[in-house]
C-alpha cells in the first residue's frame, strides 16, 4: 500500500508549487513534490486512519508524505517517543504546523510537550511548542483558564528569541489564548505589556501584534457577546 500511496503523491505533485512554497519559506532536506494541501486532505480522507501506513509515510523522507502521515496517524496510538522522533525531523514551518494541527494537539501528551518543546533550542522544535499552545487554545474547548495561564512564563521567555519562526509562533500562541474569553484576554494583554518592556525586536513585534488584535473592537465584541450568551 505504501508504494501505491507514494505513486499517487508523485502524480499529484506540481513543480510550479515547489517554487511557490520556496517563496513562503518552505524548503526541506526531504524531497518536496509540490502537492496542494486540498489534494492531501482529499487523499487522507480516502485512506482513513491508518497508523502503520503513517509510520511508513514518515520514513519515506518526502515532505508531503510526512504531512499525509500526520493526517492518517491515530492520536491514541501516538506515544512520546514517536512525537520526539518526528519533531526532530522538522526543518520548516509547514511540516511543523501541520503535525501540530492535524495530530499532536489531539494526543494526551499535548500540554506536556507544549511546555517541553517551548524550552528547546532547535528552531522548529521550539516553534512546535508554541504552535501547540496556539492550537490547544483554538481547539481544546473544555480546557480551563489555568491550563493556559501555565503557558505564560514560557511565552515570556520565548519572546526573547529573535528567530523569525519562533517569534511568530510565540505571537500566535499568545493571541489565540487571549481570544478564548474575556478573562484570558485581559491576562494576555497584561503579558503583552510585560513583553513590550523587554525592548528587543522580537518582543516589540510580539507585543504590537498581540495588543493590536486582542484590543480590537472585533475581538472585544465577540468575547463580550460570548460572555453574555454563556
UniProtKB/TrEMBL annotation:
Pfam family, one: DNA_alkylation
InterPro entries to which the protein is assigned, alphabetical: ARM-type_fold (IPR016024), DNA_alkylation (IPR014825)
Source organism, top-level taxon: Archaea
PANTHER family per record: DNA ALKYLATION REPAIR PROTEIN
Protein name: DNA alkylation repair protein
Amino acid at each position: 500500500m505504501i508504494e501505491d500511496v507514494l505513486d499517487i503523491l508523485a502524480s499529484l505533485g506540481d513543480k510550479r508549487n515547489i517554487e511557490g512554497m520556496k517563496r513562503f519559506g518552505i524548503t526541506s532536506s526531504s524531497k518536496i513534490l509540490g502537492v496542494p494541501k486540498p489534494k492531501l486532505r482529499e487523499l487522507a480522507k480516502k485512506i482513513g486512519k491508518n497508523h502503520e501506513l503513517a509510520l511508513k509515510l514518515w520514513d519515506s523522507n518526502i515532505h508531503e508524505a510526512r504531512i499525509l502521515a500526520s493526517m492518517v496517524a491515530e492520536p491514541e496510538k501516538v506515544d512520546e517517543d514517536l512525537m520526539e522522533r518526528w519533531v526532530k525531523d522538522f526543518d520548516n514551518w509547514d511540516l511543523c504546523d501541520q503535525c501540530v494541527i492535524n495530530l499532536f494537539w489531539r494526543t494526551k501528551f499535548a500540554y506536556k510537550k507544549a511546555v517541553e518543546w517551548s524550552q528547546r533550542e532547535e528552531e522548529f522544535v521550539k516553534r512546535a511548542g508554541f504552535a501547540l499552545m496556539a492550537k490547544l487554545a483554538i481547539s481544546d474547548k473544555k480546557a480551563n483558564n489555568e491550563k493556559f495561564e501555565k503557558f505564560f512564563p514560557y511565552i515570556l521567555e520565548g519572546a526573547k528569541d529573535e528567530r523569525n519562526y519562533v517569534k511568530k509562533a510565540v505571537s500566535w500562541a499568545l493571541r489565540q489564548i487571549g481570544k478564548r474569553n474575556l478573562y484570558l484576554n485581559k491576562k494576555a494583554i497584561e503579558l503583552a505589556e510585560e513583553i513590550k518592556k523587554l525592548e528587543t525586536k522580537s518582543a516589540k513585534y510580539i507585543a504590537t501584534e498581540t495588543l493590536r488584535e486582542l484590543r480590537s473592537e472585533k475581538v472585544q465584541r465577540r468575547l463580550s457577546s460570548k460572555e453574555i450568551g454563556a
